[in-house]
Amino acid sequence: MAPIVEARCLDCHSPGGKAESTPLSEYAQIFAIRTTVLTRVYGCKMPPEGAPELTDDERATLLGWLVCGAKNN
Predict the structure, then answer these.
(1) For every residue of 42-73, which 3-state class applies, written as one string?
(2) Quick one: CA dihedral 26, 31, 33, 34, positive or negative?
(3) Are 59 and 41 within 8 A, CB to CB?
(4) N- to C-terminal Cα distance for the chain?
(5) What is the distance, to the nearest Å, from the Cα of residue 50 to the centroid of all Cα atoms in its chain?
(6) Contact at 8 Å (CB) between 70 and 2?
C-alpha cells in the first residue's frame, strides 16, 4: 500500500498539505481511520476533485486492502 499512499495521498495528507490535519504518512495513522478512508475511496471522494485520479488498479488494490483489514504487510 505504501507506494499508492505515497504517490496519491501524501501531497495533501502530510505537513503543509491541504489535509495536514489528517496525516497518512504512517501505517498507524491510516489504520486508525481505515473505515473513513475506505468509505471515501469507495465513494470516489478521494482523491478530491482536481487531484489526479487513482487508476482502476490502484483503487481496486487500495479497496481490497482496506476491506480485508488493512494488514501491515
Answers:
(1) HCCCCCCCCCCCCCHHHHHHHHHHHHCCCCCC
(2) positive
(3) yes
(4) 8
(5) 16
(6) no
Q: What is the mean pLDDT of each run of 10 residues along the chain (73 residues)?
A: 92 95 95 96 94 95 93 86
Whether the pTM exceeds 0.90: the reply is no
Grouping H, G, I as helix, E, B as strand and the rest as coil, residue 27 is: helix
Q: Nearest 5°: phi and psi at 26? A: -125, 150
Indicate the Cα dihedral angle 54, 30, 15, 52, nearest 10°: 0
Q: Are 49 and 64 in contact (CB under 8 A)?
A: no
Q: C-alpha grid cell for residue 19? A: 489535509
